[in-house]
Amino acid sequence: MSLPVFKVDAGGLGGLGPGAVLTVTGPEARHAVTVRRLVPGELLELVDGAGARATGELLAAGRESMDVRLAEVGADPVRRPRLVLAQALAKGERDLLAVETATELGIDAVVPWQAERSIVRWKRERAAKSHEKWVHTVAAAAKQSRRAAWPEVLPLAGTRELAALLREPGTAGLVLHEQATDGLADLLGAPRTPWAGAERIVLVVGPEGGIAPAELEALAEAGAGSVRLGPEVLRSSTAGPAALAVLSASLGRWAGASG
To answer: Tens place of pLDDT for every residue, the chain, 259 residues?
Structure first.
C-alpha cells in the first residue's frame, strides 16, 4: 500500500539528506494529524510539487506541526517532451473532470481555454475563483496520484493567446477534432511524427459545441495539426485524457516502475 503523501513548500526538501529532521507546519500537518490520524513511528512521503520527493518517519505531531526524520531524499526525473492540455471551458464541470484525470495521467501543465463556443464564461471576480478551483483540483489529483511534480495551471487563454503558445519554439500542437483525417494512433507508427524533436506537445480540446471553423484555422496557422482518436466522438471531459494516455504510452512515460 502506498504511503500517505503530504506537500511541503517548493524547495523545502533542498539540501536535506537522510537523517535530517524536517518540521512541516500548516494545513498539511493539520491534515496528517487530525484527518489521517498519523502517530509517531508511522512512515509517510513528502513532495514539494516541483519534483523533489522524500520518505520519512513521523517523530512528533501537534495540531499545527509535525516533525519528520527523512530516510530517503530524491527527485523524480524531468520528462521530455512536456505534455500540456489546453482544455476548453465546459459546462457541468466537465472541464474540471478532464483536468483532474489528466493530472492523474501525468500532464505537465494545463491551460484553461475560453473557446468561442464555450458556454461557461470566466468574467471579472469569477475568473479568479474559477482559476483557483482548477488549481485546487490539480493539487488534489496530484497528491492522490502520488506525484512529486505538480502541473502548473496557466492563466486563462483566448484563441489568440493559445495560438501564441503554439508558435513558441519547440512546441508541437495537436488539435483533437472528430473530422480530422489523421488518427493519432496511426501517426505513432509514422517514420517521423508531427511532434518529433519537440520540447512540448500541446493537446487542444474544444468545448461541447466543438471548435469553431475560425478557431481551427487560427490554430492551424499557428502550426497545430488536427487528429482524431477513433470512430467514436468523445466528450470534452474524455478526449484530452484519452489522447494523453496514447501519447504517454508511445513516449515511454509508462515504461518501468519510475514511469
So the answer is: 689 999 999 889 999 999 999 999 989 898 888 888 999 999 999 999 999 999 999 999 888 899 999 999 999 988 999 999 999 999 989 999 999 999 999 999 999 999 999 999 998 788 899 999 999 999 999 999 999 999 999 999 999 999 999 999 999 999 999 899 999 988 987 888 989 999 999 999 999 889 999 999 999 999 999 999 988 888 999 999 999 999 999 998 987 644 3
147: its cell numbers:
506525484
User: Does the pTM exceed 0.85?
Assistant: yes
The DSSP string of 206-247 is --TT---HHHHHHHHHTTPEEEB-SSS---HHHHHHHHHHHH
Half-sphere exposure of 244 (CA within 13 A, CB side): 29
**Whole-number Å distance between alpha carbons of 200 and 208:** 26
The C-alpha atoms of residue 147 and residue 50 are separated, in whole angstroms, by: 9
Bond from prior residue into 81 cis (ω within 30 degrees of 0): yes
Which of 67, 7, 61 shows the shortest CA–CA distance to 39? Answer: 61
**How would you list the strands of the sheet with 5-7, edge to edge?**
5-7, 43-47, 52-61, 65-75, 21-25
